[in-house]
Design brief:
Elements lengths: L14 H4 L2 H14 L2 E2 L6 E2 L1 H6 L4 H19 L4 H18 L4 H9 L1 H15 L7 H30 L1
Antiparallel strand pairs: 1-2
Helix pairs in contact: 2-4, 2-7, 4-5, 4-7, 5-6, 5-7
Length: about 160
């Protein structure tokens, strides 16, 4: 099926999916956050998420909250645990990179986490993708966090040792 890409403000979900009011809201809100506006003379689209990211700190928090509402609405409307986990990863990555000045704004312009999540939702309903247990993903994330935490402690200890020497 030929679907629009993130350089379009066309509906993300199928017509039959948009017939469900909550899914229609998800489609419209995702586009408002990520593809509503276009930079003149280009195919680059952006939305409220990018604009909010221009406000240091508070903008990122508001954007994260809006993305969270979107994911919660998708989960309430039948998203599997695996799908919800993939959507939360998109939002977390967007929020994490979004905290880096300038780079975060550029990342927001191209990553479009909310758009990606709506596409995942469409694929879930249309093609039966993103099924299955969330536990392998959760265990992988936990292992990754333990490794990162361990590396941070090691780096901190090395820096303290360097400063004290």
């Amino acid at each position: 099926m030929n679907q629009p890409g993130p350089n379009s403000n066309a509906p993300i979900l199928t017509e039959s999916q948009r017939a469900v009011p909550q899914l229609k809201w998800i489609d419209g809100f995702s586009r408002l956050l990520d593809t509503k506006f276009r930079i003149p003379g280009t195919d680059v689209r952006f939305g409220a998420d990018f604009l909010l990211g221009l406000v240091p700190g508070a903008g990122d928090m508001v954007s994260l909250a809006m993305s969270g509402v979107l994911v919660a609405t998708m989960a309430k409307n039948g998203a599997s645990g695996m799908l919800a986990t993939k959507m939360l990863f998109n939002v977390a990555l967007d929020a994490l990179v979004g905290t880096i000045p300038i780079l975060g704004n550029i990342f927001d312009l191209f990553y479009k986490a909310n758009y990606r999540n709506a596409v995942l939702m469409r694929e879930y309903y249309d093609e039966g993708d993103h099924q299955g247990s969330v536990w392998p993903v959760v265990i992988g994330v936990l292992i990754g966090l333990v490794v990162i935490f361990g590396l941070l402690i090691w780096a901190l200890a090395a820096m303290v040792g360097w400063v004290l020497s």
